[in-house]
Automatic annotation (TrEMBL):
Listed transmembrane segments: 27-49
Pfam family, one: DUF1622
Record-linked InterPro entries: DUF1622
Organism annotation: Hymenobacter defluvii
Assigned keywords, A-Z: Membrane, Transmembrane, Transmembrane helix
Source organism superkingdom: Bacteria
Basic and acidic residues bias: start-end ranges: 115-124
Lineage of origin: Bacteria, Pseudomonadati, Bacteroidota, Cytophagia, Cytophagales
Protein name as annotated: DUF1622 domain-containing protein
Region listing for Disordered, in residue ranges: 115-134
Length: 134
C-alpha cells in the first residue's frame, strides 16, 4: 500500500518531503561531481594527446571547483538529514560527516586559492616576458 499524506499525518508528510528534498540535493551534488570528472577527464586526455603537461594544474583547479560546489550540496543534504534524524546516534554520525566534508571543503578551497594565485603569477610573468621581448 502506498502511503498518502492523509495516512502519514502532518509530521510524516514533512519527514517524507524532507527526505525527497535531501535525495534531490544529494543527486545534484553527485551529478556535479560526475560532470566535473567527465570534463576534467576529457581535458586531461586532450592535454596528454597534445603533450601539454603544463595544463595539468589548470585541470586540477577546474576539477577542484566542481568538487567544492558538489561538497556544498552534499553538506546541505546532511543539514536536511539532521532536521529529521531520529536519535542522537544518527545526529552524531551526520555531525561527523558534516565536519569531515566541511574540513575537506576548507582545505580544497585553500588549495584552489593557492593554485589560482600561482596561475595568475605565471600569466603575469608570461605577459612581462612578452612585453620585454617586443
Amino acid at each position: 500500500m502506498i502511503a498518502t499524506p492523509e495516512s502519514l499525518g502532518v509530521e510524516g508528510s514533512v519527514i517524507a518531503a524532507v527526505q525527497w528534498i535531501k535525495l534531490a540535493v544529494e543527486a545534484i551534488g553527485a551529478a556535479i561531481i560526475a560532470l566535473g570528472v567527465l570534463i576534467a577527464g576529457s581535458q586531461f586526455v586532450m592535454a596528454l594527446l597534445r603533450r601539454q603537461t603544463a595544463n595539468f594544474n589548470a585541470i586540477r583547479l577546474m576539477l577542484a571547483r566542481y568538487l567544492a560546489v558538489a561538497l556544498e550540496f552534499e553538506l546541505g543534504a546532511d543539514v536536511l538529514s539532521t532536521a529529521i534524524a531520529p536519535g542522537w546516534e544518527q545526529i552524531g554520525k551526520l555531525g561527523a560527516i558534516a565536519v569531515i566534508r566541511t574540513a575537506l571543503n576548507y582545505f580544497l578551497s585553500i588549495e584552489m586559492k593557492e593554485e589560482s594565485a600561482s596561475e595568475q603569477e605565471k600569466k603575469v610573468a608570461a605577459q612581462a616576458s612578452g612585453s620585454e621581448g617586443g
